[in-house]
Amino acid sequence: MVPINTGDPDAAAGAYLALEWRLRLGHRYRPRQGCTCGRTDCAAPGAHPALHPSPVMTKEYLAGALETAPGASLIATTTTFDAVVLPRDIGMHAMILLDREVSVPCLLQNDDTTLLLVLPATGRYCLVHPDVSVRTGEDGWIALPPSRGVRWDTPPWIEVTGVPRPLTHGEDVGRILRQAFSYVGGTMAVTA
């Protein structure tokens, strides 16, 4: 199998739709003009949902939508997974520990954020420190590659085969996050 090119919007969106993720188009980043949201202080230029979200993408809608909005971010709602958001240094330490036990889909956003994808409705078990948040349900979202500043550390599919990577329960990831915070010197909010 040819590896999925997440730098190609059509290939990436096709791969996400194959995972049955609900996709929408988000804002775009324009060189020398910034994010299409128009906010000069935008925290995630070209990598967040629009105020008036586009329709959920289907394969039929996909091709035309990406052509009419070149460079638009791809946004997934967190209905088929929970996204655990944490500082990058802690996230990378946790990934080293997790890789010893299980492979968890991991996104890197800009230079400061890691997002770990876990089974839906289990992200709450990862709230082990004030620096951790969870995006879940219909109102939660994540920006996906090829959105600006977003890339996979560990994609949600096995790269050689394209088979979806099984999601891990948040309780198992939360246990590892506790270790990561203690190793990096963070102060734990809860102990177990």
Quick description:
With about 190 residues, the chain is of the alpha+beta class. About 25% of the residues lie in helices and about 30% in strands.
Report on this structure.
It is built from 4 helices and 7 strands. With 192 residues, the chain is an alpha+beta fold. Strands 1, 2, 3, 4, 5, 6 and 7 form a 7-stranded antiparallel β-sheet that branches. Strand 1 and strand 2 form a beta hairpin. Residues 187-192 have low confidence and may be disordered.
Q: Estimate what percentage of residues fall within beta strands.
A: 25-35%
Number of strands: 7
Q: Based on helices, strands and strand pairing, what is the structural class?
A: alpha+beta
> Main sheet?
7 strands, antiparallel
Q: What order do the helices and strands follow? A: HEEHEHEEEEH
Would you spell out the secondary-structure blueprint of this structure?
Elements: H1 9-18, E1 23-30, E2 34-35, H2 59-68, E3 72-87, H3 88-98, E4 106-109, E5 113-118, E6 133-144, E7 150-154, H4 170-184
Antiparallel strand pairs: 1-2, 1-3, 3-5, 3-6, 4-5, 4-7
Helix pairs in contact: 1-2, 3-4
Characteristic terms for this protein:
alpha+beta, 24% helix, disordered C terminus, 192 residues
